[in-house]
Specification:
Blueprint: H1 2-17, H2 27-46, H3 49-56, H4 60-74, H5 90-127, H6 136-157, H7 163-173, H8 177-193
Helix pairs in contact: 3-5, 4-5, 5-6, 5-7, 5-8, 6-8
């Protein structure tokens, strides 16, 4: 009795583990089916953000700016209290970059690259302040406030009713590097007083 159950289980296992290919008379059809699956998987790779970035030949700074922009536009917590704000899906973000093409993508993220550099300079300046400095917490709070404002500005600007072209134009016009540069100057002035 136990052998019959064991044989039945093996038979069931074999049936479920086989590929679902109807009317297969020889193994060449199985190979063709598997090749098509591999081709489909390869074509999915073409649709990834990484492949698009590679195709556009973006610099490392531009790649970071694209990742940054994606994180802002797909994050539902940024500017959640603002009316009419669009939260992009990953597919919509990919479509946005695809529609813009390489040149417009580079133009759209050029200000982000500049602002991210200024932001990173402020972050490094704050890290270099001794922990016991009386202004360190104040500068950290100002930095956080300015960064949140910048993220909010990007999210709202890319939520226009003008679609992808409106988002492209908005990204070209957002230049918030000055807010970070001003904070860095303030930090340097404070540190030079001591």
């Amino acid at each position: 009795m136990n052998i019959q159950i064991f044989k039945s289980l093996i038979l069931i296992l074999m049936l479920f583990s086989c590929k679902d290919i109807k009317n297969t008379h020889d193994m060449s059809e199985v190979k063709d089916y598997e090749d098509k699956e591999i081709e489909n998987a390869d074509s999915d790779d073409v649709n990834t953000l990484e492949s698009l970035v590679e195709k556009y030949q973006l610099s490392s700074e531009e790649q970071m700016a694209v990742q940054f922009l994606k994180s802002v536009l797909t994050n539902p917590l940024i500017a959640k209290d603002a009316e009419g704000v669009k939260n992009y899906t990953e597919e919509e973000f990919h479509e946005f970059l695809t529609i813009m093409g390489a040149n417009k993508t580079k133009e759209a993220i050029s200000e982000i690259v500049i602002t991210m550099t200024a932001r990173d300079n402020v972050r490094n300046a704050i890290y270099s302040i001794p922990d016991d400095h009386p202004q360190k917490q104040n500068f950290e709070n100002q930095f956080k406030e300015k960064e949140e404002k910048y993220l909010r500005n990007i999210k709202i600007a890319c939520s226009s009713n003008e679609g992808h072209e409106g988002a492209y134009i908005a990204l070209r016009s957002i230049s918030d590097s000055f807010i970070f540069k001003a904070l860095k100057s303030q930090i340097e002035d404070t540190l030079n007083e001591n």
